[in-house]
Amino acid sequence: MNGDFEYFTKCPKGLNNEEKSKITPFVTNPNQGSFDFIHNCDDDKFPRFFWGSQEPYSGEGFAGVSVFINSTNQTDGVREYIQLELKDSLVKGSVYRFEMYLSLADKWNIAINNLGVYFSNEFLLLKTDGVIPVKPDIISPEFFSNKSDWDKYLGDYIAKGGEKYIIIGNFNEKKDVQIKIIDTGPTTDNYVYYFIDNVSLILNTNLSEGITLNNINFKTGSAELLTSSNIELNKIVAVLETNVKYKVEIIGHTDNVGNKIENIKLSKARANQVAKYLIEKGISAKRISSTGFGSKYPTGDNSTFEGRAKNRRVELKFNVTEN
After folding, report:
1. Class of domain 207-320
2. How many CB atoms lie within 10 A of CB 85?
3. N or C: less crowded end of the chain, CB within 10 Å?
4. Going residue by residue through the chain (323 aa), what tens digit of pLDDT does each one get?
5. What fold characterizes domain 20-203?
């Protein structure tokens, strides 16, 4: 996959270097935008890059991508993405752990949230340089704003089967992009540019520890599932159909906004709705349990918008039984 950006056919020189597939094996542009490949072999660019100074998370290379242009003269603006080719196609019903490291470029003073990861069966090469019109499979509500060091981006993905490519970037239209001001120093607020390193995807064998899925959505303040959740829910069905010895525990969580008792009731009701969906799809009720804890077990900071968004989640824990 070359997710650590260490392998190249020749040293990349300058900005917007030639077609990336000729330089970085297995790493390409999925649209007409152009990510940057930064490596120690280029003495003029490393580590003092045009967008700012940064050392790789590991090794000697990393990538850079402009994920948003904040301008009144732009509609959705130019978007850059990174497309990585996997060595092997993903197996239907298997759960994978995605990980990468991000650092916000020094030159810019804004960050965005909801950076996404999309898994594709086909190689993408759009003829435009705008937003790629797909729904990402992994989304993070966090604003990655660290300029001095690297932050970890983590997510779980249940494979539909046959996925061969990973695409990283901002899949939101401009009207849906949320901006966070980081500082007011001698920088500019026109671009959001991230350095990216150590992209990896491994089979998640610790399913009993729990996985959180992004695309299970409910009506606001309700336990009613939105139809947009069906794709993700059907992946859970596939996991249980493929692994007949698995049992699943469905756990609902909320943020701390509102009444504590009502939040517990809502989290339980949402977990029950997910369980009901699985049963209606033919999974035995004996293999399913559900509960909810309200805001008792936060994974994010409830004092921030992104932290509360992270805490509103449905978690799954799989256990193997011999029965």
Report:
1. alpha beta
2. 15
3. C
4. 999 999 988 888 766 555 665 678 899 999 998 898 888 887 766 545 677 888 999 999 999 999 998 765 556 677 999 999 999 999 998 999 999 999 999 888 889 999 999 999 999 999 998 899 999 999 998 999 999 999 999 999 999 999 999 999 999 988 888 888 887 665 556 789 999 999 999 998 888 888 988 889 888 888 999 998 999 999 999 999 988 999 999 999 999 999 999 999 999 999 999 999 999 999 999 999 999 999 999 998 999 888 888 889 999 999 887 65
5. Jelly Rolls (2.60.120)
Q: What type of residue is 319? A: N
Using CA atoms, how far apart are residues 13 and 254, in angstroms rounded to an integer? 48
The phi, psi pair for 148, rounded to 5°, reads: -90, -20
Q: Which residue has the tokens 């004092």?
A: 303
Q: Specify the domain boundaries for CATH 2.60.120.260 within the chain.
A: 20-203
Portions of the chain given CATH number 3.30.1330.60: 207-320
Quick one: tokens of 296? Answer: 């008792």
Buried b (16+ CB within 10 A) or exposed e, 90-120: bebbbbbbbebbbbbbbbbbbbbbbbbbbbb
Q: Which residues contact 206 (CB under 8 A, 6 or more apart)?
A: none
- In the chain the beta strands, taken as DSSP E runs, fall at 27-28, 36-39, 48-49, 52-53, 61-69, 82-85, 95-104, 110-112, 115-120, 138-140, 151-158, 165-169, 179-181, 191-203, 211-213, 246-253, 288-292, 313-320
Largest alpha-carbon pair distance within the chain? 64
**How many Å apart are CA 251 and CA 233, to the nearest integer?**
14
* pTM reported for the whole predicted model: 0.85
